[in-house]
Amino acid sequence: MSTTAVRGRFQWTVAVPIAAVVVLAATWANHESPVVLTVIAALLVGAILAAVHHAEVVAHRVGEPFGSLILAVAVTVIEVGLIVMLMTGGGEGTSTYARDTVFAAVMITLNGIVGIALLVGALRHHLVSFNASGTGSALSTVVVLAGVTLVLPSFTTSAHGLQYSGSQLAFAAVASLVLYGAFVFTQTVRHRDFFLPVSSDEFGRVTGLLDEDEDGHADPPPVREAWLSLGLLVVALVAVVGLAKLLSPTIEDGVKSLGFPYGVVGVVIALLVLAPESIAAVRNANRDRVQISLNLAYGSAMASIGLTIPTIAVASIWLDGPLELGLEPTHLVLLMLTVAVSTFTVAQGRAKALQGVVHLVLLAAFVFLSIQP
């Protein structure tokens, strides 16, 4: 890439987050005008793309799997901020904001990001390979997190409906943090090699770790540029959270005017906040680094549950109204199918385009049934 191209991309990725924060501050109290909302929407998209760029710069500097972890946590910060801000704003869907958004994030990551990554990678490289040991441990952690926080509340009897009692919610929050912390330690310290890109033979069988020194990519950015990108990443995330909050009434009105169930708002929010992950996963799959794509997908699902639920549990101390976390029967079935399909996908350590299609059909079923329950 030429110096001019790098400088051009660098300039817009600096200018857009700053402009987004300025517009956020200027329009916070008055943003009902269609023109203003259009500007906010455009800057929101720009801030998401800028966040992807800066997260990748930082990731390139620190290496894998730390890079995937940073982007996953960054995206989860967006999600947590949006959920808390929407819940504090009140409204008819306040009690299910957390559940709808977290479950949508799980379905989008486990089926959407995984599916598109496998499809893109397999179409370009015939077969894609990854470390089944590392990816399998990530999947099992996601499954337990989802079970404790989203499935069990549908069957407990201490609280009314699909809610946890106070002590049950506290247990789920602590359990989520413990599981997430244990996985991060495993991924970054204890068994880091299990989450690095792998090399494979012509049949897709893993032959070892990929030699990153001969991949033809640019050297890691200087420390100063990485720190600058880290700061701009924070600015971009603040802009995304704030601008999405300003757009949320428009999203809610749009969903209502179309006659869709209120849960569709959670799907839209999850699609919005997971855009950076999706873009990064496709880029890595295209470069035959599906392991990184899977790290992003399962890491995001894990962070979405493991960080969001404890935050919401603490926030519920001062938030009024019930907090429904339990899934409805249709979503329980979709989660069960997703877990079964994901298990078969991960167990082999390699995948064809078919597996990607299967996951994407499951995502399509989730979106369609959210609109037409």
UniProtKB/TrEMBL annotation:
InterPro entries assigned to the protein according to its UniProt record, in alphabetical order: Alkaline_pH_Ca-Antiporter, NaCa_Exmemb
GO CC annotation terms, alphabetical: plasma membrane
Single GO molecular function: sodium:proton antiporter activity
Annotated compartments: Membrane
Top-rank lineage group of the source organism: Bacteria
Membrane topology according to the record: Multi-pass membrane protein
Residues annotated as domain Sodium/calcium exchanger membrane region: 34-188, 229-371
Keywords per UniProt: Membrane, Transmembrane, Transmembrane helix
Cross-referenced PANTHER family: SODIUM-POTASSIUM/PROTON ANTIPORTER CHAA, SODIUM-POTASSIUM_PROTON ANTIPORTER CHAA
Name by which UniProt lists this protein: Ca2+:H+ antiporter
Organism name: Nocardioides lianchengensis
